[in-house]
Amino acid sequence: MPRRTDIRSILLIGSGPIVIGQACEFDYSGTQACKALKEEGYRVILINSNPATIMTDPDFADRTYIEPITLDAVEKVIECERPDALLPTMGGQTALNTAIGLAKRGVLEKFGVKLIGASIDAIHKAEDRDAFRQAMWKIGLRVPDSGVATSLAEAERELERIRFPAIVRPSFTMGGTGGNIAYNIEEFRTQVEWGLSMSPVRQVLIEQSVIGWKEFELEVMRDLKDNVVIICPIENLDPMGIHTGDSITVAPALTLTDKEYQLMRDAAVRIIREIGVDTGGSNIQFGMNPANGEMVVIEMNPRVSRSSALASKATGFPIAKIAAKLAVGYTLDEITNDITGVTKASFEPTIDYVVVKIPRFAFQKFPGADPTLTTQMKSVGEVMAIGRTFKESLQKAIRSMEIDQFGFSSKMGLDLGVPPSLDREEAAEQVRKAVRTPLPDRLWRLADGMRLGMSNQELFALTKIDPWFLEQIREIVDFEPKIVAERGMIGTAGLRPELLLEAKQLGFADERLAQLLGVPQGTIRGWRSALSQGTSARGVTYKRVDTCAAEFEAHTPYLYSTYEQECEARPTGKKKVVILGGGPNRIGQGIEFDYCCVHAAMALREEQIETIMVNCNPETVSTDYDTSDRLYFEPLTEEDVLNIVEREQPMGVVLQFGGQTPLKLALSLSRAGVNILGTSPDAIDRAEDRARFRELLDKLGLRQAESGMAHSVEEALKIAAEITYPVMVRPSYVLGGRSMQIVYDEAGLLQYMNSAVKASAQHPVLIDKYLRDAIEVDADAISDGTTVVVAGIMEHIEEAGVHSGDSACSLPPYTLDSATIEEIRRQMTALALELGVIGLMNAQFAVKDQTIYVLEVNPRGSRTVPFVSKAIGVPLAKLAMKVMVGKSLQQLHFTTAPTPTHLSVKEAVFPFTKFAGVDVLLGPEMKSTGEVMGIDSDFGWAFVKSQAGAGAILPTSGTAFLSVKSEDRAGACDVAQRLVALGFRITATSGTAAYLTEQGMQVDVVNKVQEGRPHIVDHIKNGEVALVVNTVRTASAQTDSLSIRREALHKGVPYYTTMRGALAAVMGIEALLKKGLAIRALQEYHRVN
Question: Which of 284, 115, 295, 160 is nearest to 214 (CA)?
Fold first, then answer.
């Protein structure tokens, strides 16, 4: 059936900020849907609060609303735009829950909006745990025994039948939020309480545990004519009990017999029909008992999911794009496959390679978080690798992760063999202990177990990882001694060619071979290039992803490397540029960098230059086969990038858009003679190297906070005493503020030096004077070497000392005077010209008592680029790319930045709900996973929107609780007086209350936790507190008040841990009480249609 003509405009709901469990895979699916629907001539209206995604660029939808995804805001958009239809399956759980909310409110009926892609009934049947269970029984499929509860008492009744271990799963959440495994009644009670508070409908499922079973997922698509295709079977290497987002997964499924796979396929087809997903993609998860092949259905997502992104990248089949076309009436046999150009979407993809996905975690950012992997997702990103065998693919994935692992390096120093002096039994016991609990380093622990002689049977019994996978890992581990045996015997000719080739076919990295042989990595590279010369040349080859196992020719160059005879790269002779992506998402380096890479590709296309993208992140838009002219799905390591550059011979390589990942390669690439476009590696080093940076500032007469560099504990104490406490300490060369801390006294410094870092001559510790209560400012500029345009100056809402990625900020600034802003603009320009920046630059300043201090300068695209671009209406990354290939800013007609009349506020979004017991206080170490943006003509409202987008709805009445450190009391008085004027009641702890009473205010005193009950946490638990303001200075006060902040988080009470944050909240509440919500599309703010 051709497309529907009864609808002309379609509303798409995005997924909002990046959080654990709902990351940039929805940025990718939403972007594809926007493109697909516009292609078909529909008017597309988009609401999404996330500025970092390319989807909210004004060119993607016809009307783009960067507004909080709340029912009120979406209803307002529907009222303004009157869309004919709503497509809710592209924005993850956020969009589905919003669509259900709108239907319940009667909004869809009131404005005559049709739901396409999934009906309310289908969403309810798949998402409501009880309805799903009934549906499965009806079609004769087994689900784990379970019961639904809406209270603790009901849950305990269900438990009598289900018994321990039991799994607790909240309804209508994503990423397994609030889910967990309970082994005893105490754990069970805590988890049920937590699960009920996490579920938007206060409902949990108590489920029989199938921990240790094998887990599989199928990506299924269905059209209106009931054609069903299976895009891809995905197998989890990890057993049931670990959330699929945290599991290592493999495509295609490798350990099923054909009969088992056919049974699973048939079940999937029956499920999608029974649930009633008429059109689009669904993801269905199965568990299988390894002992007897018994199969159960775990769950189904009636929408595009994280696994859809993986399946799309693994097969080259664009699930989101096809789902969007099916939603508007097309059938699978009418949609052409872009890659082959001749087959249709009803032709199931077949793959002749193996894909491995490994998740990336960030536990080091959250001291106190439990790193055990359970049914609740905890990973912050993932990498994917493609190889001809599982072994090659696994080793490529390991080196893609950027955790300084290039293979199965031993955690026990057994790389070169097991020393005779080692007590094998004790070492084996250590391994048993380590692999019994699933932790992120389990792969390396397994390898050590194998080196110590443990059998596959024993390891299977401990981990329930299928023996086939264990055998594959063993083959890699068993090959290493063959390489080690050559150590010290290698002549000038190098390693025997057949041995080197075998190692490369097994996926061994040059770096790993170099470690095993005790030679530099460059030496291995030399041997490899010798291997690819001569008559029987054998070097790296590239294969194309073609969706059909080479049955038809692939027209889109989507490539991966392997070591075979035939190479399918076929590079062109055009003028071309290689763009290096950002690798896996992590805290400190998110999709803002992917946004910049996509812009770079778009800019080069406009300049008629061929683009070559290199990246290994399956969730992103940059790894879409139609974003750039050629895509290499490869690890971002020196070895893999140089191989591509040698094959493609580009005019240059772009490093400044992918965050720290490509920058780390700057020196090694330029040494290898690669032309680096934009700012020179030397200028980057001048900004990153402390001593050179100080010289630069002295030369320009700019100020920096007093600082020093310590190579030992004694030296650190001496420096800190000279520059006086408080000081900020951190190791040199970091991104996202890893291991940074503010230290208030000598005891604190000693503790930091002994626990967080090991200072040495190579790795000194940096100590800076901490500018207390300074205002921090972020600035972004673009330069062509002669003209510098300072595009955006952002004032942070939290004071200096909170990492810039975690601080909310306002553009234009909301309290700074124009003279200060002008001076910052002057300093930015001087810095950019002195460094010789070509492209983007970001710098951070602190303003204290009218003095401006330079904190740091990054001569690259930073995480604020998308936010600034959307706030001022200029695509900065695109312009920067054009400047890097020779255009001047004059030619691009961008010599001054527009000054917006509206205010934009960026707010960070944190994953604290995923990590029980972790403190929510902000500091110099970055902890946020994503961001939202609020835009309004008034600062207060822009702030309110940013808070709502981040999930904190500001109250307009009730009780506010204040407990602040002594130096914040004057600020607290201002906050309290303004709240009283708005009709709030004030409660405070004794010290703060005494001060406020002295100032003539009416305050109720409330107990601190250690002062007896009822205390403040009891009041929060009972829902008697609407707003929490809590600032602390000392470590002991921090631990005392931790329970206040955690309880506010649990209960969803807005909380502020800085005075500037609290003041902004008050301005927000004042705005809320003054006028109602107003929305405008981004295109209106920038006067473009």
Answer: 295
